[in-house]
Design a protein that fits this description.
about 325 residues; alpha+beta; Arc Repressor Mutant, subunit A; 13 strands; about 35% helix; globular; binds iron/sulfur cluster; DUF5787
């Protein structure tokens, strides 16, 4: 199975079967991380109550500037420069964020002469309990394992996620081959069936200390890797930014980068649903399903009448279906 299809199945499995502590809830997303490191699958552990409180801020993510305002806006009216901490960059950018926050409806603004005063409408909740990062490698051969082991060691050293896992295909062997490779012992190993319905935890990870400083690689040159110190505040900010992106996107956002408006695009498998290409008679990858695909054919205009909504044909209906499923998970 191609990595993209495997990735979707790991996401679907995690959404159904991942067990957060207590009566928690999970949000699952794909391809999130930092500028220098993206994880294939990210699980955010949270609670129903925290999700309800987060919902007051709308379905779109809060970027780092909006988070700054949301976390520091006061309960009563105050001049913004008096109540917000020094941002470390020009205040005019903060004013811009204040206007965006007011447009989003989670703060209010008023003028006192030239001064802009603000107050919050909702308290930004502490809604992220844990972050779990999963690297997917369905066909793990020795050379792929060597490359991955180095990346996973860096993930452990940074400790941005609370747990790091490697997901690979179940082989049915007595000992899963991933266990025989030189993976860091802190990393968990998940063996996932080809259908993505079953998965077995064949090695449990160590819980990392996400609240302490870590180290991250900054540069690679001639086999040499430079590292820099990542302080605890930086990690907390990044974790929240990752969680916010996961909240907005979920894992079904693949329709936004693929071509559901192609006449050959279908959704199959109620477990997903997962994309299917009728022209190639297989699951397309996210890269090949684009306007550059040689088999791409826009859906005929006639499909946009009859039973389909006038605003679009089957492609539009596919996007709406995936969007509805994403909203239900929040
Ligand atoms: S033909 Fe190409 S663009 Fe159309 S669904 Fe298949 S992969 Fe996607």
């Amino acid at each position: 199975m191609k990595e993209f299809g495997f990735e979707l199945r790991v996401c679907a499995w995690a959404e159904r079967h991942w067990q957060p502590s207590g009566d928690g809830r999970v949000l699952v997303a794909r391809q999130l991380g930092t500028r220098s490191r993206r994880w294939d699958t990210v699980i955010i552990e949270t609670t129903e109550t925290a999700l309800t409180q987060r919902a007051a801020f709308g379905p779109e993510r809060l970027d780092s500037d909006l988070l700054f305002v949301a976390q520091h806006a006061p309960t009563g009216w105050d001049y913004y420069r008096d109540c917000l901490p020094d941002p470390g960059y020009p205040w005019r950018y903060v004013r811009e964020s204040i206007h965006r926050a007011a447009d989003r409806g989670f703060i209010e603004t008023r003028r006192d002469g030239n001064r802009i005063e603000i107050r919050r409408r909702y308290r930004y909740p502490d809604w992220v309990d844990r972050i779990v990062a999963i690297e997917n490698k369905p066909d793990l051969d020795a050379s792929a394992a060597r490359r991955l082991a180095e990346q996973l060691e860096h993930d452990v050293a940074l400790g941005l996620a609370d747990e790091v896992w490697l997901a690979t295909n179940t082989t049915g062997d007595d000992i899963e081959p991933a266990l025989l490779e030189a993976m860091p012992v802190d990393v968990g190993i998940l063996a996932v069936d080809a259908d993505g319905i079953h998965a077995e935890r064949v090695w449990n990870p160590r819980t990392l200390d996400a609240s302490s400083p870590g180290v991250r690689p900054t540069d690679r040159c001639d086999g040499r890797i430079d590292f820099e110190y990542a302080d605890a505040d930086w990690k907390q900010r990044k974790r929240l930014e990752i969680a916010e992106r996961a909240y907005e996107r979920g894992w079904r956002s693949y329709a936004e980068t693929m071509r559901p408006d192609c006449r050959h695009f279908e959704l199959r498998d109620p477990a997903g649903p997962f994309p299917w290409c009728a022209a190639k008679e297989r699951e397309p990858t996210a890269t090949e399903c684009s306007g550059r695909c040689v088999d791409f054919e826009p859906e005929p205009p006639a499909w946009r009448s009859k039973e389909w909504p006038l605003s679009g044909g089957p492609g539009r209906a596919v996007s709406q279906l995936l969007d509805r499923k994403r909203q239900r998970r929040r």
